[in-house]
Amino acid sequence: MAVCGPAAAEGGWDSTITARPSYGSRTWVDKNVDSTNAYVKLYVCNQRGAVAIFRNRQWPVPDVTVKDTTWSCDNGIYYGDTAAGDYHFTLKKTSNGGVLDANVQVRY
């Protein structure tokens, strides 16, 4: 008899950031070996803002925008079960135009 638990993410990382708009995160590699709904979560933030999540492509071809959204602190930015590839997010703006301090959680 086999017992299956809940689906787990293929990978992920946790960090903190202190960043201004145009900050680009580190890159992560999603091999798409699962069907997990991937997300980026910014929490314990000092403000709201806008983030874009990209799938990297070889220069000079522009990266593919996977999700472009505003967020309120503590809400996950879900971008689905995406194609295999290298991903990163960019902080596009902050609610007051200044520095964002936040914890970051990425699951893919």
Automatic annotation (TrEMBL):
Top-level division of the source organism's lineage: Bacteria
Name of this protein: Uncharacterized protein
Organism: Luteipulveratus halotolerans
